Amino acid sequence: MSSHLLPSYARVDLAFERGEGVWLVATDGERYLDFASGVAVSALGHSHPHVVAAITEQVAKVIHVSNLYRIPEGERLAERLCDASFADTVFFCNSGAEAMEGVLKMVRKYQSANGHPERYRILTFEGSFHGRTLATLAAAKNKKHLDGFGPAMDGFDQVPLGDIEAVKRAITPETAGIVIELVQGEGGVRAAPPQFFRELRQVCDERGLLLAFDEVQTGIGRLGELFGYQKFGVEPDIMALAKGLGGGFPVGAVLATEAAAKGMTPGTHGSTFGGNPLAMAAGNAVLDMVIKPEFLDHVRQITLLFRQRLAEIKDRHPSVIEEVRGEGLLIGLKCKVPNGELIDALRAEKLLSVAAGDNVARLVPPLIVSDAEVAEAMARLDRACAAIERGKTLPKPGAAG
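Request: output the structure for the sequence above.
Response:
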């Protein structure tokens, strides 16, 4: 069937008409176990009653007013995020890429506002992914993503993940700050050890740099704490959030200390739709759930069960799965077969997953996933791996048998 949509996605010929919890129902009535979560977005699963009620109520009141006026719902969400984190101030936008644009601008503006406009370069890490805008693509330096879009934006230097000596060597009098994902999602679910983040914090403090965390994928409970940095024990100066923050509704945010945000005065940054009443209703509803200690306890407990079961699957199918990696409910299966082969086999078993770099298949279920649903997912993963193994042992057509 032809489509007028820009063909910038390699879409699977599959469409969903409704969802409930960790399940999606396709237009043909088939039920799928959703361990993709819209790429780590649907933190509370699908059709969560509290989120549905909050959005429905707000739609009947007012959807959008613009940031020319106060938005009480946004003021409340900002206060709650600051109370729960290192931050003093929040800027709301619509996506992770927009949040990261805000982060990059804030890092540069901080140095300029403090009398160092020459400090504009930002240090990033190999394998990173920060979004699809020209600035965030330049920050990640992925040649495949940059190809055909002209010269990459200047101002970014990249070093190997986890190499603190390389970080120190790369810092120059023009360096403004360091930007890093706590776990590289798109880059293959790769994480540096916690010690590396402590070393980054020390280097930034010693050299007058800002430390910014991209928590677009790791924030809002995904790693078993409200924010991933709380698990790692290192506070940033600036942090980007998105994905899980709106539970499926587009919401992004930049959180910062008062000092880091010093240069962001009226007129320096903006967003037409960012932080509108409907988005803020969604964000507050998600936070109502995720901020509860028992909710995060559940994420930590289910993570232990999930990792244990995945280790068993890996041991049973070593020709398919090479390694289980990740933190919390951001899990990567490093494949010995092409990762697309495993993802297709999982989809054939009605289990949804997400591709990542380094030949990894991501499993990022809604944070509400139950023990029984993890068990069901593992049974489907087991069958998918077995199907791949059978396919590899079948004689080729025409071969002597």
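Residues 394-401 have pLDDT under 50 and may be disordered.
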